[in-house]
Amino acid sequence: MGSDGCVGPWRPHRPRGPIAALYRGPGPKYKLPPNTGYILHDPSRPRAPAYTFGARLPTQQQSCGPGPGHLVPARMTVRGPDGSPSYSIYGRPRDAAPFRTPGPGRYFPERAENLAYPSAPRHTIAPRNWGVQPERQTPGPGTYTVPSLLGSRIIGKVSAPTYSIYGRSAVGTFFEDLSKTPGPCAYHVVNPAVYKSRAPQFTMLARTSLPEDNTLKPGPAAYNVDKHRKPRGWSFGIRHSDYLAPMVTDLDD
Length: 253
Description:
Elements lengths: L75 E2 L2 E2 L31 H4 L75 H4 L58
């Protein structure tokens, strides 16, 4: 160990290139998804179910229905309806139809031969059918149709391209009658406002008359200058009442 405190031949020097120790990074703190919680959970880790605590509902202040003292019949007691008799007036029921018992003449014992009396066995001669095979309903080979292998509509097989032969068109060939071609006059001139920006349009209306007063006004001859209008005058009169009786004197006789 030397006097400068260095061990061996190593001495402090500037590094030849950048090293990671000269830079300060975030360290092991990376934006990894957490393993706890339900939101933004690590998709590579199992996630347990999450539950939430809901808010407590407010207590109900008013009852939704009436109490036990409501809608109870008057004749209903604790042990059921009271035992007082009750009567109702109904119509008289009709008499039921009497049962008609069949008499002796309704039975026919002679018709019950094999059921009521012993009898010898009876046999019938029927045609032999054990050796005859019934007609088979199985379809034969000609019933099935195999799809065709020709054409372009083949099921389950690769089909080659098909071509069809059409007639020759007369348009553009020497068979076309050019005399039937429409001339320039057959086409109508298209309004430029259809395929271009339409300019504003104006109309010329008739000149409107000015508002006039059509009332008849008096002319100069309608006035009479010689006639003077008498000014209004006032006079002092006596107020007479409709309910006042006239004064009658002896001189009036």
